[in-house]
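Q: What does the predicted 3D structure of Dienelactone hydrolase domain-containing protein look like?
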Amino acid sequence: MKTPVALLLCLLIWFTPLSGRAQSTDAYEKHVFKAKGGHELPYRILYPKGYAEASGRQKQKYPLVLVLHGAGERGNDNEKQLTHGGNLFLQERSRTDFPAVVLFPQCPTDSYWASVKIDRDKSPLGLQFDYHRPMTWPLKAVRSLVKKVARDKRIDKSRLYITGLSMGGMGTFELIARYPKVFAAAAPICGGGDTTYCEKFAKRVPVWVFHGDKDNVVDPRHSREMVAKLQSLGADVQYSEYLDVKHNSWDNAFAEPDFLSWLSGHRKKKK
């Protein structure tokens, strides 16, 4: 049976825009960071348009954004870490209104960004945060990688930002707790952290926290507890909890119209 012409036209109209929605991540350069102890950390990096031609003496400098992926994107393919959030920075509006160096490292499958004890027999997961434990080697490597990239004279060291989702949200909280003088602002998504360390960054790092109220992987109470502790310390903190959203609250967070402008509106405190 022949397909009616009208139906073919409808299918063409339906599928044509879809092909344009997927964005190539080729603009993110592939690299591997040689860390201490013989470890290797794959990472992708996106540079602003015209960055290569820019002079280190120019007045304009660019912010750096560090993005920590979730547990599901671990590996060594140097691809999966761009699954969530990668397209946000490729959007033309982002490239034009928020030109930045964007860093996506990839944690290996057998490790974790955060120093957390996990009981996987529970749902949501049983999580015990304790920053008295040593940092994991991937998180140490991330800190060294940021330091290396930020040496570039074209990067504004007063505008280093960090965000991350799930395991990466936990890593976000831990990095600003351990290095409160490094980042100008942080946006942890569906994560959590050691509330006893909040005092170390409460007066230095503005934080925007995100979580879904129906998260069945990482209990939203972990974000709520961090926010409550920061509020008690007089921190610059805001919290967005999404109604009827499960563990994919990063979709909501990255769709926030003020997400990038909020980050870029902060500069690192001098004291």
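A (community wiki): The structure tokens above were generated from the sequence. DSSP finds seven helices and ten strands in the chain. The chain has a mean pLDDT of 91.
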